[in-house]
Amino acid sequence: MNNRFFCLLTLFFILSCETKEELTFEPLSISKKECQDCSFVTINVPKAIGNSKLANTINIAISEEIISWLSFNETGKANNIKEGIDAFITDYNELKNKYPEESMPWEATINGDIVFDNGQILTIQLESYLFTGGAHGINSVRFLNFNKLNATELYREELFTSKETFTSYAEEVFRTQEHIPAEANINSTGFMFETETFYLPENIGYTDDGLLLYYEPYEIASYADGPITLLLPYKEVNSYLKLAVTP
Predict the structure, then answer these.
(1) C-alpha to C-alpha distance for 47 and 62, rounded to whole angstroms
(2) How many structural domains does the chain have?
(3) Residue 22 — very low, low, confident or very high, per pLDDT cuts 50/70/90?
(4) Which CATH number covers residue 191?
(5) What is the DSSP letter of 241?
(6) Which residues have a Cβ under 8 Å from the Cβ of 211 and sit 6 or more positions away?
(7) 168-185 burial, b if ≥16 CB within 10 A, otherwise e?
(8) Quick one: pLDDT at residue 185?
(9) Mean pLDDT computed over 142-162
(10) What is the 3-class SS of 58-108, one letter each residue?
(11) Residue 129 belongs to domain spanning
């Protein structure tokens, strides 16, 4: 009986140490430019160190997001960041061979930072600038949220106890912020919500100041309007969140 108790105590101690093991990061910096007038890619993002489930979950999520930004040819799928970079450069070179006088070099710049970590929730913000021709490049932002305790990525639908209830609350705050009367159409002041119905943005991230709703350019307004954001203090939204955040 004593031996069994000792074994259980030892196992508990081991599991506790593994749970408390701190997650650490190192910078991942990749740059590729083959010539002065060639397309180029520059990437600077955090990389989780180690082979834990959480580290692998984070690194895979970052890699997949970067690959999706760099992918223009749907016939092939890059398996890692290096392949994604090579595919980006190759797609431009193929275009240049077809239209040598009309093809300006492409550019991809992707940066990432840890913007929130309270021991339970970790949020990494990725920002990209992509130029693949046209009048201007495109800036994009992605928030990757993770539950550190169970080593999983938190997708938008998993953040709320009731997405519908939170959406109704967010619409009230949005209307107040943007001076849209409660009885007016959501697009009455110039926004471009599809079906003229308020909806949450694709990007929602935890920050030190509150839950950030981030609408990309083009998502609900013109490109000239830039991103539209709504910052909600945790004390106001904790009742809607599955994982409450202590302010």
Answers:
(1) 8
(2) 2
(3) confident
(4) 3.90.640.20
(5) B
(6) 204, 205, 231, 232, 234, 237, 241, 245
(7) ebbbeebbeeeebeeeee
(8) 98
(9) 97
(10) HHHHHHHHHHHHHCCCCCCCCCCHHHHHHHHHHHHHHHHHHCCCCCCCCEE
(11) 23-154
Classify residue 137 as exposed, middle or buried by CB count within 10 Å of its CB (0-12, 13-18, 19+). Answer: middle
Q: What are the phi and psi torsion angles at 160 (to 5°)? A: -115, 150
Give the position of tokens 């993002």. Answer: 45
Residue with tokens 């709703």: 213
101 and 118 in a single domain? The answer is yes
Q: How confident is residue 4, by pLDDT bands cut at 50, 70 and 90?
A: low
Mean pLDDT across 132-148: 93
CATH of the domain at 104: 3.30.565.40
Q: Taking a C-beta distance cutoff of 8 angstroms, is the pair 221, 140 a contact?
A: no
Of 65, 68, 61, 55, nearest in space to 26 by CA: 55
Residues 58, 94: one domain? Answer: yes
Tell whether 37 and 133 lie within a shared domain. yes
Q: Are residues 75 and 184 in the same domain?
A: no
List, in order, residues 6 or more apart from 44 with CB less than 8 Å away.
Answer: 27, 28, 29, 110, 111, 112
Over residues 177-206, the pLDDT tens digits come to 999 999 999 999 999 999 999 999 999 999
Domain assignment present for residue 10? The answer is: no
Give the span between the Cα atoms of 4 and 6, in whole angstroms.
5
Read off the pTM.
0.88
pLDDT, tens digit, 9 for 90 and up, residues 96-137: 898 888 778 999 999 999 999 999 999 999 999 999 988 889
